[in-house]
Amino acid sequence: MSSILRNVLALPLRGLTWLGGQGTRAVAAIAFIAVAVPPLGALLRPYVTEAIFLLLCISFMRVDLVALYGHLRRPALVAAATAWTTFGVPLIVALAAYATGLTTSSPGLALALMLQGMASPMMASPALAALMGLDATLVLVTLVTSTALVPFTASLFAGLFLDGVLNISPTTLGLKLLGILAASLLAATIIRWIFGAEAIQRQKRPIDGFNIIILLVFASAVMGDVASELIADPLFTIGVALLAFAVYFTLLAATTLIFRRVGTERAFAIGLMVSQRNLGLMLAATAGALPATTWLYFALTQFPIHLAPYMLMPIARRVIASANSSAAAVASGTN
Q: CA-CA distances (angstroms) from residue 109 to 3, 4, 89, 158, 297?
């Protein structure tokens, strides 16, 4: 009986291990599943906050403490990346929205873009960076610093560019963000203390699988109405989707170019983080009281977020290989 029970209990673990082994393919499939099964979105919509909490908890739990201390001893790069994602990106996005006349021609779309610019990086960005073999610790440290600042920077830019269209309370948002960060860090610390870092590393694949399931919860909750919007107005919906891809890859390319001097691998990791904005927290901060076009854009941004890691995997492998070759060359030259 005990062996049967063990086998039954092992089934979910084997399933998570298999799912974790699918990597970026599974992340890419999430976007299509979320759109194809609208009832799943209606079912999971109440659990967006819990999904965000678990994604960040997993990121904290898996952090490489040695690499973390290394980044904290050399804070210049983290400070520069934080300044870019919290001040540079929202400023440029807002100015572009005004310069192109989008604030007049499509206020809902302009609002979506400015909220996207003001958002902190997505909670799942360290996990996605890890799936691609990039420096997830650098991403996590910058995620934490930029998330801590977003209550103040979001209210600042809202006052400058939204002119009363959006009312963001920095106190409420700040308490919510700090609560999520503190609780997830505490939970991750307890898990690491109970099981140990080595055990967590050994269970990398099933943890990846569980992370993918949580990503599905969030994507389904946000994208549940995309199919109906596509049927109602296909040209507009496709146009908004193309804009979402354009913004994603523009942020990725511009950030990688700006930070190229610190190494292509690190610059690419920062670019991946900056291009993935945490629109879930912005939805929570506004209580979902947004125009329909803003909601549609938020939903369609999930496509580049989930497809890009799979599409960019060959580039990430070349970047990592090049960085390893350069490190090996430097090491051999010093011997």
A: 57, 55, 17, 15, 7
Q: What is the mean pLDDT of residues 282-305?
A: 80
pLDDT of residue 1: 46
CA distances from 13 to 5, 6, 10, 18, 30 (A): 13, 11, 5, 9, 20
pLDDT tens string 63-103: 777 766 777 777 888 899 999 999 999 999 999 988 988 88
Q: Is 23 left (phi over 0), alpha (psi -120 to 50) or beta?
A: left
* Cβ 42 vs Cβ 223: under 8 Å: no
Is residue 189 over pLDDT 70? yes
One-character DSSP codes across 248-304: HHHHHHHHHHHTGGG-HHHHHHHHHHHHSB-HHHHHHHTTT---HHHHHHHHHTHHH
Residue linked to tokens 């596509």: 230
In the numeric block, the tokens 């298999």 are attached to 18
Give the C-alpha separation, 207 to 197, whole Å. Answer: 13
Q: Is it the case that residue 328 has pLDDT exceeding 60?
A: no
Q: Chain-wide mean pLDDT for the chain?
A: 81
Q: How far apart are CA 136 and CA 121, in angstroms?
A: 13
Q: Provide DSSP, 181-213.
A: HHHHHHHHHHHHHHH-HHHHHHTHHHHHHHHHH
Q: What is the pLDDT of residues 202-249, one digit of tens each?
A: 888 888 888 888 888 888 888 877 888 888 889 999 999 999 999 999
Q: The tokens of 39 are what?
A: 């009832």
Q: Report d(CA 158, CA 279) in Å as an integer.
A: 15
Would you say domain 39-321 falls under CATH 3.20.20.70?
no
Would you kindly state where each structural domain of the chain is located, as residue ranges? 39-321
The sign one gets for the Cα dihedral 286, 243, 79, 137 is: positive
Beta bridge partners, 121, equal 277
Output the pLDDT for position 109. Answer: 92
